[in-house]
């Protein structure tokens, strides 16, 4: 009579820690991608999202976003959507209105904001890859690398945006009342979320490697007379 027994680790035991790290990392990366996409589609796409808003003395509002700006009072008009634009304001000097740039080399600095949707796209690809890896026993390394590159691009683009709009905030005080908008905080949140996701992804990958080595199934067959 043959009695065949198979000893192997239960899936819930083998992958208990890996899904936890992977789940946290996936949701952090997903949240980061959403924040970065919202920042990317700030004014002139979505008028309520902007990096900087300046209210002049006549109540006219100017909102600066990723690919342009919106200007006006009750009825706003937006610029054409382009990579890099001139961020300028009008200021009264001696009874006349003068136009001046509130961001030095504004076309270059605002043009660097194109890195924001690039980071958002990389984060989105990372989320898709991590979601697929839930149903596989590998893939965390590629997700980690994608999120790592996305984090670098997001942090770099946020630093450039911060430099541009902090300078703009100071210069715009001559023309009116400047205030930072939601796009700046969304951009910052996306970059931070990606940075927080990296250690979880690294732990998930290390756990995955360990589980792969321990996944050898031992089959013992014994025969009874």
From TrEMBL:
One of its GO terms (cellular component) is growing cell tip. The lineage of its organism: Eukaryota, Fungi, Dikarya, Basidiomycota, Agaricomycotina. It comes from the Eukaryota. Keywords: Membrane, Transmembrane, Transmembrane helix. It is found in: Membrane. The chain crosses the membrane at residues 20-46, 114-132, 144-168, 180-206. It is a multi-pass membrane protein. This is Pali-domain-containing protein. It comes from Naganishia liquefaciens.
């Amino acid at each position: 009579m043959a009695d065949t027994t198979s000893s192997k680790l239960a899936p819930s035991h083998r992958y208990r820690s890996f899904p936890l790290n992977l789940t946290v990392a996936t949701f952090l990366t997903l949240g980061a991608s959403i924040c970065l996409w919202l920042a990317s589609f700030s004014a002139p796409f979505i008028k309520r999202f902007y990096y900087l808003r300046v209210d002049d003395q006549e109540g006219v509002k100017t909102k600066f976003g990723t690919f342009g700006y919106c200007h006006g009072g009750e009825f706003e008009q937006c610029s054409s959507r382009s990579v890099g634009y001139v961020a300028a304001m009008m200021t009264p000097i001696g009874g006349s209105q003068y136009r001046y740039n509130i961001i030095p080399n504004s076309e270059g600095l605002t043009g660097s904001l194109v890195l924001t949707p690039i980071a958002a796209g990389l984060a989105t690809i990372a989320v898709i890859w991590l979601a697929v890896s839930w149903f596989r026993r590998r893939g965390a390394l590629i997700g980690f690398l994608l999120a790592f590159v996305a984090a670098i691009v997001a942090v770099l683009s946020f630093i450039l945006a911060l430099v541009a709009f902090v300078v703009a905030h100071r210069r715009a005080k001559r023309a009116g009342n400047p205030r930072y908008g939601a796009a700046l905080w969304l951009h910052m949140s996306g970059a931070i979320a990606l940075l927080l996701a990296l250690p979880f992804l690294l732990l998930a990958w290390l756990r995955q490697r360990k589980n792969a080595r321990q996944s050898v199934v031992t089959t013992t067959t014994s025969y009874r007379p």
